[in-house]
Amino acid sequence: MLAVLASQLVCRSATLSDLMQPPPENADPGSVHDAGAYADLAAQAAAAMGRDDLARRVAAAKARLQNSGTAIAVVGEFKQGKSSLVNGVLGIDICPVDDDIATSTLTVLRHGDEAHAVVWCAEGSERVTRDFPVAALPSLVTEGSVLADGRVELVEVFLPNPLLAHGISIVDTPGANGIRPGYTAVVLGYLEAVHGAVFVTDASSPLTHEELAFLQAAVAVSPVTCIALAKIDLFPHWREIHSANADLLQRAGLAIPVFPVSSALRHAALVLNDGELNEESGFPDLIRFLDENLVQRATTIAALGMFDTAIFCLNEMRFATAADLAARRSPDTMADRLQAFRQAKERLERLKVGNARWATVMNDGLGELVSQVDHRFRRRMRDLQKAVDDEVAKSDPAKIWPDLTARVREQAAAGARDVIYEMETGADEVAARITALLAEDDLLIGSAVDSRPELELTKYWAPRPLSRLSVASGIGMGFTGLRGAQGGLILFGMLSGLAGIAVSTGVLAGVAAAFGGKQLLEERKRQVAARRQEARTAIRQSLDETEFEVGKTLCELSRDLNRRLRDHYSDRIGERFRTCMDAAASLERGLQEDEAARSARVAELSNQAGQLDMILDKLTRRRNELAATGMRQ
Known about the structure:
Elements: H1 2-19, H2 32-48, H3 52-66, E1 70-76, H4 82-90, E2 106-111, E3 116-123, E4 126-132, H5 137-141, E5 146-147, E6 150-159, E7 168-172, H6 183-191, E8 196-202, H7 209-221, E9 225-230, H8 238-251, E10 258-260, H9 263-272, H10 275-281, H11 283-329, H12 334-351, H13 357-394, H14 397-439, H15 511-514, H16 517-591, H17 595-629
Parallel strand pairs: 1-7, 1-8, 2-6, 8-9, 9-10
Antiparallel strand pairs: 2-7, 3-4, 3-6, 5-6
């Protein structure tokens, strides 16, 4: 049996020598193909050494690189040209454009082999999907989009488009009739989930105060933000507007690039195949900016993650090889080294059980985090309710209602965003504590902080339906856009519920004709009191609904974070256990070797260590070059 194992090790060493041929020196470290070649090299090396677990981990990292995507949100007010801009970027007429209609539904455009649309509808508390041809898009994403299955919440459009084939997803968002309170908090929650944003404003007039305020908030959560100054073909004075916008942005301290564009010129250029007209449209400059600052940046991040995983796995193999080699070079220390590996195996075995100390730290940490976040959010909602009650008690709700509900909407949305942020940052702190705890046992196990899964735009929470007769339903605080699980980010779909609300004024009909003098005054007082009670009830219902949806998302996010941390550390502990187990088995064989066999094994291990050192050096240098130069498709 020992002879068979020894022969297998020799074969593995020989196979490793054949496999470990790095890409040539002149390979481009900034290309996805060559970055993937290094992943193949590391995976093949792991397989050759019998470490299928590490090979699978590197292969998964390569798959994430190849499937890495870039989500770009297009935001702005109604009728500013957002849908036309999306069409211009893609080079096709896909999003409906009309002077009399406006996009009212979140539309995600991504690559697909065949053109089709998938519609997500709210049916009670569930989500249902239906397939449609892209020709039906105008009836699906514009105002009043209602199907037999329920209200349209989101539309995914799959297109065989060369730009989308690079992993880009473009999100055409509903506009706002003015950047009103409530809109900003919702959009900012969504921008935290995408890689960058294009803010669209037309060239009819300079940026408004509300638009500038929105941009200041947007760049804080989405550093890669640009402005598209649209419809320059319609406004001869667009250069003056462009200059005025530059001054406004400078005074506001916003270093945001502005790209004057004309969707009409872009369309004509593509039809006529006119390169000069295409440049005049401004779209090539905008697309170059998006490519260099968003697409390449997102791909670089994914590639760096792949390199880090490959380097970690190679270091794991190098650790075992170096320990085996050192023991055989100093046979008198082999027994002590074997004992050390056996003890390490025992420690790791204890770490694999459910009641291990790191698991207790994780469970207690996440439990405490959920409790604290939930308490802060509920206190925030109670304080908001109290402030509303105090304001309503001093005023006639009919006079302050639009402003009051807008502020409630804004603060509730901001509170929900903070819940997600606090959960994710808190989970990072828990991960850091676990990593530090494992480091006390001299276990080189990396943190799970950077192990977040890919964003899935279509996975978000369904709302609990409100009665159409409920005054609260008009506030739109159902939080239809809250994402559970993978990140728990607030999606832009929440806008579909942000309709205005009006207190019923039917009781006022005919009052002037029926009453006069003192009776009229008393009736007015009674009606004001009734409106106050109605307002308190409406706000309370909406905040109760908010707490319900946020609480549900919080529970799901907690489970997702627990699963993410548990799987990460369990896998890393399992990999290190496998390393120690293989090393101990090799040392046990070494104790039975004669001098000749030991010398031969030392030569094999020396060659293997040299090969691993070589490839580790190559990968490390390529990784550093990539970090410095960025990624190219």
